[in-house]
Amino acid sequence: MSQNNMKGYLSDVPGGPESLKLTELARPEPGLGELLIKVAAIGVNRVDAMQRSGIYPPPPNTSDILGVECAGEVVAHGPGAEVGPAIGTRVIALVPAGAYAEYVAVNHTHIVETPDGWSDALAASVIETFCTAHETVFHLGQLKAGEIALIHAAGSAVGSTAIQMARLRGAEVVSTAGSEEKVAAGLKIGANHVINYKTSDFAEEILRLYPDGIDFVEDFVGPAYFAQHLKILRWLGRISMVGLLSGGEANTSTAPILAKRLTINGFTLRPTPDDAKTDIVARFRDQWMPELVSGAIAPVIYAELPFDQADECHRILEENRNFGKIVMTL
Fold first, then answer.
1. What's the rounded Cα separation, in Å, for the pair 325 and 330?
2. What is the CA radius of gyration of the chain?
3. How far apart are the first and last CA of the chain?
4. Residue 104 and residue 74: Cα distance in Å, rounded?
5. Which residues of 87-119 are buried (b: 16+ CB within 10 A; e: fewer)?
6. Residue 1: its pLDDT value, please?
7. How much of the chain, in percent, has pLDDT values that exceed 90?
8. Which of 5, 22, 154, 291 could form a disulfide with 177 if both were Cys (CB 3.0 to 4.6 A apart)?
9. To the nearest whole number, what is the mean pLDDT of the chain?
């Protein structure tokens, strides 16, 4: 392989995990305001599987290579990026695409320096997840100490992170999971209650626990749960819609939105404009990196697999075997 080339994962033909192809590609050149990073570890996210299956293409004018977060070492500066970390600095990076590769170019304002003593795998597990959880639960969702939050999908990377963040900030948390093992794991990381949605109606159970309703919902599911969310929220309740796992449309009365003055926010991190993403990364760096470094909060890492097992990473994700983050290491 030429020294100007690298290996990276493409999925030219949409399909299952087997459609991932490790391909020899041209090494990117850092553009205006960009750093070139030699990748050491990669966070695996559901958005990657969605891109691979053909339902979530990368944003325009970005790479076709999969992957939205990684950790590694700065090896070159593009024009105007000299103000960023020096060559040789270990960093954590948030990218719109291109992280499933040996090298990636990244906006110099979309990185955080890797703390001393952190492994690359640990570093690669935090930025996408913590940025998403902070923006949806606190920045948009305005969750406060003493309030009650429903955070779905206790076993997902964002769900397991958001549970810990909300508890650390003094909120009460109820979550959902699809197995008794994940129910137990959700309780272990701090949720006050975890409901097995396969054996119970989560909305009925929440109203049994909290007859007056709750304040906030972190919603990865979308239309299938929308009516139930409107039912369980109380006056001035909020929903942050972070995913559409159920697909389809919601056919329900919107009267509760008016009657209870509910607020509904939508959020997707990947297509967020660069300047807004710079602010998101800054909020993560300022508000959560100190908590991570101190050990007050920690990402839940389910598995670390080598770079040549991206297909297995996606199988674990799509079969919902994981509780927490999956990371690939180079």
1. 17
2. 20
3. 17
4. 10
5. eebbbbbbbbbbbbbbbbbbbbbbbbebeeebb
6. 66
7. 92
8. 154
9. 96
8 Å CB contact between 197 and 205: no
Structure tokens at 300: 């839940």
CB–CB of 36/74 below 8 Å?
Answer: yes
Q: Give the chain's largest Cα–Cα span.
A: 65
Q: What is the model's pLDDT at position 246?
A: 64
Q: Could you tell me the sign of the dihedral formed by the alpha carbons of 114, 118, 120, 125, in that order?
A: negative
Contacts of 187-192 with C-beta under 8 Å, sequence gap 24+, read: 189/154, 189/160, 189/163, 189/164, 189/300, 190/163, 190/164, 191/151, 191/154, 191/163, 191/167
Q: 155, 180 in Cβ contact below 8 A?
A: no
Which is nearest to 50 in space by CA: 26, 22, 19?
A: 19
Distances (CA, A) of 16 to 189, 292, 318: 32, 35, 10
The residue type found at 7 is K
Token pair, residue 50, equals: 């969605």
pTM of this structure: 0.96
- Read off φ and ψ for residue 12, nearest 5 degrees: -65, -35
The one-character DSSP state at 135 is I
In the chain, % helix, strand, coil (3-state, to 5) comes to 30, 25, 40
To which H or E segment does residue 23 belong?
strand 21-26
